[in-house]
Design a protein that fits this description.
The protein is an alpha+beta fold and about 100 residues long. The chain is built from 2 helices and 5 strands, in the order H-E-H-E-E-E-E.
Length: about 100
């Protein structure tokens, strides 16, 4: 799921994860491995959001899916694994302009 800048802000606020910017050197490899997503990293590894059905029409939600775990104590190397839903749901509040 590719997120808007507002959705990225809301996700960072709710998860405490860092977003990988589109210009990050790892993005081409991540996109080829996992598809076009907005990628996040936290203390446990690499995450994306997948859309989930929402009961409230004005709210969109996404489930956090883990794609890779850190394989070293310095958090510099990731070990990919099968996508694992975490059960964590991010709720996007509609922003009125």
């Amino acid at each position: 799921m590719k997120l808007t800048s507002e959705q990225v802000k809301q996700t960072v606020n709710q998860l405490g994860a860092q977003v990988l910017p589109d210009e990050h050197p790892a993005m081409p490899q991540l996109n080829s491995m996992f598809g076009e997503h907005t990628f996040f990293v936290d203390e446990t590894g690499l995450k994306v959001l997948e859309p989930t059905p929402s009961l409230a029409a004005e709210r969109q939600t996404g489930e956090v899916v883990s794609l890779a775990d850190w394989s070293d104590a310095d958090l510099t190397r990731l070990m990919a694994h099968e996508p694992e839903p975490t059960g964590v749901i991010v709720v996007f509040e509609h922003v009125r302009h």
